Every structure is written in structure tokens, then in C-alpha cells.
Amino acid sequence: MFDDKKMFEPVEIGKGVFWTGFYDKAADLHCNPYLIVEGDEAVLIDGGSRPDFPGVMMKIMKTGIIPENIKALIYQHYDPDLCGSLPHLESIIDSPGLRILTNTENIRFIRHYGGSTPVQSLDTIGYKFSFKSGRTLEFFNTPYAHTQGSFITFDHDTGILFTSDLFGSYSNNWQLFLKLEEKCLDCSLEGKCPSGLSICPVKSVCQFHKGLMTSERALKYAMEVISSIPFEKIAPQHGSILEDLETIVCIVKHLKNLKDVGVDAYLKGLSYDKIGNINPLLKRLELKGRHIG
Ligand SMILES: [Fe+2]
Ligand SMILES: [Fe+2]
Question: Could you list the residue range(s) of the whole structural domain that residue 214 is in?
Fold first, then answer.
């Protein structure tokens, strides 16, 4: 379990990379914003929701960074659990140099949070952001995992891959880092946990993806994208950070082959040609004495 003393502290998970999340024991899902500090500059990844803002901001301040030195807010998609605090962040950072970095597809949704910060789309900056020191973040698209414009961010310096909702899980029995027991590495997800855990962490990750990802194909493709990146750690926006390679491989294998994901679960058992009966609608048109096609 998470050490309660750390509850109010930022946790450095790699050189200059701070977990600034808020663990709510009463909730079954919590968020993990991350701050990357490089010299006198910083960027915030998936900054968090409106209710989480005070806790996240307190942790950002505890890293020692001056808010106006935050140069960019990276939003890896447009959901409220990561973008909800945008207006609050803007007013505290209060800097004309602040930028939002995100994919074009996210911009039209992010503007509804009421922010006024200029947005740079990733395609206009070559899918890269560099600090003054040369430290570089690289962005990779993971479309429909789980939104059209979803992407992930790789910090070349630390090898940390920030994956937003990918590799997320529910917060039951949460810990900041997850390392699977040896016996769990070939977990079949069936029957009792071989390590005797009451909540299977692998099952929790799989359940999260079944519910949140759009389809088997989108998730499988995302695993292909991730596998091509030379990362050392995976830092998701929900759930636990993964740094043990065997744990990562185990989870990647499960997610690559996961069935009943998103719409595939909802329409389970129906083949493509069995979906899409619009005859009732056509019938109504016919009853009005009209006909199309
Ligand atoms: Fe999301
Ligand atoms: Fe999320």
C-alpha cells in the first residue's frame, strides 16, 4: 500500500520527473499528473481534474518550481480527469509564454474547458518538444486508444513513457509502483490468484482497458506503437507506474491479445453483416409515402 506520509509530497520517479497525483482512498479511480522539471523550465503532463487541483498544485509548488516557469501543458487527450483544471492552472501560471501541446483532434474539445492558452498541435512541432538544455520529449500517436487524438509522450532523458489512459487500472489496493510476483507473470486471469492476492492487478488492468478502450484493434495497435519505443518505465495517468521489465512484458502481452474490448464486448457474438439493420427507419419513411434509394 502507498505510504501515507507520501500522500502530500511529490514523488520523483526519474531525474526531474515528479508524480504529483492525488490518491483518494474512497475512489476506485485516481489520476496521475506528472511534472518534468529541467533547469528553470517545466512541463506538466495530463494536469488533472478540477477537484484534484489544490492537491496537485501543492505538490507542484513543493518541487520548488516557480509556476510561471511551467512552459507547456501537455494533454494526451481531452477528458475532464486530465484537462479539468486547465483554467486554474492558467491563472496560477499566469505566463504569456505558456503553451498547450496536443493533437489537432483534441483541440476542438479542449477549448470547452474555457482556457485561453495558445495551443500548438504536435504536427506543427514535428512531434517533439525540447527544453533549453536539449532534453527532448517525443510524442507518438495511439489513435482510438482511447480517443481519436490520443498520444503518448517519451522522455528520452529518463526513458519514462507517459501513456495517459493506456496501462491504467482501477485504484483498488493501489500502489505507486507495481511489480508482479514471479507466480503472477504467467497469470491466466482464470481462477484463484497464484500469489493469493484478493485483487488480481493484471485483471484490474485488463478490466480497465476493456471498459475504456474503443476496440481490440485500437488497443493491439497501441501495444505495437509502445513496443517500438526504447522506454525504461511506463507512467500511466491512472493506476500504478511500471518499471519492472517482466511485469511490463506480461501486461503488454495480455493487452495485445485482449478480447471483448470496448465496442467488441458490447456487440459480442454479432458478425459485421449482422449489425446495421436500419429497416425500421426506412419503414417509417415509406409510411410517409417517400422512398430513398
Ligand atoms: Fe480518458
Ligand atoms: Fe483518464
Answer: 4-270
